[in-house]
Write a structure and sequence with these properties.
alpha+beta, Hypothetical 12.0 Kda Protein In Nam8-gar1 Intergenic Region, Chain: A, Alpha-Beta Plaits, 3 domains, 4-stranded antiparallel sheet, elongated, SDO1/SBDS_N
């Protein structure tokens, strides 16, 4: 007999639930969950399964109230697993089903989140002014179209046999640049924003650069002229370049991280420099200071992202 999904007062309509499906042993198993709770449980913010599961049972078809036969569960998951363990496996590994409306709303929320992050971290190189979210959104749309067109042209060249192998003429091929194909809902907004920024900087569909960090670096004067002992591995495999850096002084190496010095000077036995650093260099600089000064030097963040707001 079909089993209905019942709340205290009435039967729950399918539109009020989220389904999680897992295909295994030629069967599709389903569990019925409360909306918005599956992702919270998977991220660890929701611990109570009672707040996640509508019904602690496994179904073949939730909308029809068709429970999964015991023999199907044994065949798919093994005889040693309890139904509770099977429910947890489906909850962990299953595909979350959402309606078209929810999918569209989720995609729009993710789009806004990604655009806002990018807009806060990229600037116009000359003026250092920020772009509005609308301008960033249009730039990402342009980027998606350019990347798709470049891929089509590349595929056409490969098909005709006239394409130049990557790197053969010394030029950077568009197909080798970071690409952007739009937002997805199964990745974090932060990670997608980083991908979007890399692609925008590489393609330059609009003039952009990362907003630089403004730092204060303090080091004891007695350490400045010492030969740097901490060696940062060369990113391009240039051993000669790495050797040159190894011979530099502590002060030389610190200043090599700073793109633009705002001020520097000595006071009470300490040397202080305030300047602008590309965000990607911050960790290397911090590690270098920590390793060379044995905790006596420090790096202070004055501004996470230096920008000029639009009038």
């Amino acid at each position: 007999m079909p089993v209905g999904i019942i709340q205290p007062s009435n039967q729950i309509k399918l539109t009020n639930i989220s389904l999680v499906r897992l295909k295994k042993a030629k069967h599709r198993f389903e569990i019925a969950c409360y909306k918005n709770k599956v992702l919270e449980w998977r991220s660890g913010t929701e611990k109570d399964l009672d707040n996640v599961l509508q019904v602690p049972s496994v179904f073949l078809n939730v909308s029809k109230g068709q429970l999964a036969p015991k023999e199907d569960l044994i065949k798919a998951f093994g005889k040693d697993k309890s139904e509770e363990e099977i429910v947890l496996e489906i909850l962990r590994k299953g595909e979350l089903q959402v309606g078209e409306k929810e999918r569209k709303e989720g995609l729009e929320r993710m789009q806004r989140a990604v655009v806002e992050i990018v807009a806060g971290k990229l600037v116009e190189p000359k003026s250092l002014r920020v772009y509005t979210p609308g301008m960033i959104e249009r730039a990402l749309d342009m980027l998606s179209k350019e990347a798709a067109q470049a891929k089509q042209e590349d595929d056409k060249e490969k098909g005709s046999g006239t394409g130049t192998p990557a790197g053969e003429d010394g030029a950077v091929k568009k197909r080798d640049l970071p690409s952007w194909n739009g937002v997805v809902t199964n990745k974090s907004a932060k990670s997608q924003a980083l991908e979007a920024m890399k692609a925008l900087i590489a393609w330059q569909v609009i003039p952009v650069m990362r907003a630089r960090m403004r730092l204060r670096i303090v080091c004891h004067v007695s350490q400045l002229k010492q030969a740097a002992k901490v060696v940062v591995a060369s990113t391009d495999g240039d051993e000669e370049g790495a050797e040159k850096e190894k011979k530099g002084t502590v002060k030389d190496r610190i200043l090599s991280y700073v793109e633009e010095v705002e001020s520097q000077g000595e006071n009470s036995g300490e040397w202080e420099v305030v300047g602008f650093v590309e965000p990607g260099a911050f960790k290397g600089l911090s590690d270098f200071i920590a390793g060379e000064t044995k905790g006596k030097g420090r790096v202070e963040v004055l501004d996470m992202a230096v920008v000029h707001e639009k009038d």
